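Researcher: Batch entry, complex prediction.
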Amino acid sequence: MIILNNVSKSFKGIPAVKNLSLQITEGEIYGLLGSNGAGKSTTLNMLLGFQQPDQGKAFIDGLDTSAHVKEVRSLIGYIPESVSLYPYLTGMENLAYFCKISGKKYADQELAGFLTECGLDTNAHHKRTETYSKGMRQKVGIAIAYAKNAKVYILDEPASGLDPVASNELSTLLGKLALRGATIVMASHDLFRVRETCTRIGIMKKGTLVKEMAAASVSATELENIYLAYMQD
Amino acid sequence: MSLIASSIRSENIHFKRNPYKIGALILFFVAAIYGLQNGYTLYQTQTEEIEKIKLKNKKTSDQVVQWFAEGKSGPENRPWVNIREPYWSLWYTPSPVCKKPSSLMPFSIGQAEQFGYYKQVTNRSTPYDGDLAEEIANPERLAIGTLDFSFVILFLLPAILLVLLFNIGGLEKDLGFEQLIFLSVTDHKIWILGRYLYYLIIIVATILLTALPYALLTKSLLQDPGKMFHFFLYTFLYVVSWMAIFFIVSVAFSGSKNISIVMVALWLTLTVVLPGTTHQLTTLNYPATYMTELLDAKREEADKISELPKEKIKNLLIASFPELRNSLHYSDTTIDEEIINNSVSYLVNNMMKETTRKIEVLHEEKNSFIRKMYLINPVGFFQNKHNGIADTDYYSFQLFRNKIQNRINKKVSLMASESWNKVVVDSVRYQHYLKELND
Amino acid sequence: MKTIVANEWKNLGRDKGLLVASVFFAAVLIAVSIISVKEVKQSKENQQKAQQHMREKWEAIDSMNAHSAAHYGTYLYKPVTAIGNFDEGVYNITGKVLRIEGHVQNEIVYSEASQSLLMSKFGKLKSSLILQYIIPLLLIFLAFNSMSNEKESGRVKLLYLQGATTAQLIISKSIAIWIYGILLLSITFFVQLLSLPPDYDQTQRLLLLFVVFALYYYIIVIGTIYLSAKLKNNTAVLTMSLAGWMLWTIFLPKILGNTSEKAFRLPSRQAFQTAMQEDRAKGIDGHNPSDKREKELKEKVLKEYNVTDVKDLPINYDGIRMQADEEYGNQVWDKHFGNNYTLLKKQKTFYQLSGIINPFISLQNLSMGLCGTDMYHHVHFLQQAELYRRNFIKMLNDRHAFGGSKTGEWEWTENNEFFKSIKDFEYRNPALGSLLESYRIDLLCLIGWAALITTIVLFKEKKKEYV
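Model: Structure tokens for the complex:
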């Protein structure tokens, strides 16, 4: 579903991503680990079409992300570190608004269904999002992607700032989406959450993918040791 | 005290690394120079124009002196003129009244472009004649107004202060380290005050730096040090007042966005809305006068006096100008109609003076209302103070009108007394007239 | 786009502060319109009273020599237009009273500005002051963070992923805020329309004025939102927008106005009068029979009537001489006033062209022009008044010449009926068509600005994304 083929990207001559090649298949949850400036966000931005690779190509569902920005984006759901919604709109209204912009019109019942499926309590549907917690906003963010029928979910530091319960809920929700065939890529610093949620893990350092492994093949402590070993080199 | 000093020092770094603030100060500097130059140009233009008038008048008086020398009675194509008669001699005595621009004009043009500043006085003049209209100018340009130094101080400076001060205290809130400041400084307000003081020093220095060269150029600093001091004093008070207002805003509001919105709202209210409201209310209470009474007096009442029986005119003249009792014509048993005709302007002038006095009273009522409105229009107060000091306000032109009236009085008195004394004018007497009717 | 516009409206509608501000502005706009209408009504009544008073004086002339009546003259008063209450323009600055008499073209005098201390630098609190200065600022405050907020919050990425483009976002958000400006504008224009007497010309002008303001608001809103998309953060957008507003509204008009005057210098009054006097001296002096040129005229008239002495003429030669003097004076005035008018027009054109860099100038020009309070209307009034003066004096001189008296009969008088028969001055505004011709540049500048920013947004920003 996602293919990165020898992709490189520099900013003002400083390389952010170097010859990155990666393949993620349907139903997989891929976790990108790395310190600040490792190139995780640049990789995600290239997948989102916000940045074009200087070299190499990125494909989603067979479409070049640089050449078919519009089509690629119609397949993607994006959940940033902190989902920012219109505070003066309710959860339902926010969802309806973002759906309408992408050309989809749903009945209120359907919208409520999406929110519920993404774990938002029914009582919160009609409350303004200015009263929402970060976790609740993230659920609306996922509902937006879900309502869009996204095949690919791209998450940038999704667990940052979430309490353990919300973080756990997020893992469960992503697991459910993957089971339904969604491809998920998440960039994170949280080793524990990545190991819990993802099926495969990649470690990036200075723009290069230095290590890839199946999440199930390592324990949390082993993952931490591997990560620290790479970071100390 | 050390907090203030350290705040001032640290603000220097903030200022030097903020291109917007440096740009704002440069804009203020350039605008101040531009405004001063505009004022100085007007000062020069008016001074030159007055010199031209003097030159033109000199030509006229030289011509008359030449007529006397050549034994002529006047211009060849006007045979009815006889310059040996006081009436015609005085008619040909240039009597200009000029409002010499103050050396402080470069600092505040004020209402100088809305009034005439020179007048050739005749025995039929009034201080409200049509030839006292303002200089020929594009009315739209006048309505838009001139960017003079006073405008730069009263209107631009608060806006510049806004740019310089809006993020003091606000930036820390925007970037989320406001609490850190609260914990680090002993008194948050003193910390803000110190930073404000830095800009006060910069602004005052810029004002002095731009204004002083012009004060030296026009010699106002040497000739009118008192006025210059007052101008700077009001300017300083004005700057401090704005800083005090903005200081309250900086302390009371947080976040540079909120602070800037409140500052802009205050600036707009004080410089545009309140003066506009005052203006509108004043016009509603004191609509512009169409001077009908003056026009009637000038056109009809004057004629009525001229058409009175000569004896009646003679008696009226004696009653209002008792010195005529000592004249030659007073004791004449017959009435010399020409002498009476030549002195009737004295009575007309008296009547006109009464009419113009009423107009001045009416205007003064309006001005008194405007002054009362200073409470809600403080910018208007400073504006008129600046104009008053630079002799470019309504009252300076009222003084000019008074000067015109005095010159008219002198001219008609001379015309009457000389005619009644049956003076035969010669070159020496003409020089006396010139001396009497010129500054 | 409709969805984004609707969402922006929801945002505006749910902002309680804005709601309070809107009610306040609406109330102020209504109050200011009503007060201005009242003031203009009062001013019109005073003007008509004064005009009527002078007319009564004229019609009360019982018996007077025709040429003496030319010296007696009359006074004309500059009228205010019905929509003059919207924008005072030059009305406060220019004189209001013009003396009409023989031999001389007087200056229009007694401006309101010369009758008191200075009160304001931006004029009275009229609808134009609020709509030109304050509402655009309000629109800037509403618009400055509309894109930068999306960027700073990261929501813009979501919007792009949902298929929205930068152009769509800017245009939609602009339309939403622009509609708000239009609503405020409508309140003023509604009150103005209600207060307007049934007058097709004035209604047309008012409607056009609405369009002009709407165009300017569009430029302000879309410009600010464009900056909001381009610049890094809210503070930068606010600083730049405010700086732009100050430059456009407060400083450039003054600087460019001054520059136009310096580029095309008008003569000083002294120089103007001296030049007029010099030229006038080359013509006939109506009151000076010894004048050489006058002798030539006399010869011509004597020859025409086949007599040798003016006393034998069946007409009054004095009237002919006075009219000849008048006509020469008119030529001199036309030449010199024409020169001044040419310079004024050049200054105006220069100022109008500066609308290319400052659309506020175009708005200001059109606002004054359509309200009938601009320089063109002022000059139009002076020209109409001069035309009236010429006919007025000609009627009197002709009567003096051909009314039955003989040369030198200065005691000959005309009766009241004759003086009454001379029609009073009636001023009519120039037609809207000719006015628009003079304001083509301003209209084009405003349309050009609106089109240019829209084009930049639609095409240059089509593929750009600000994340």
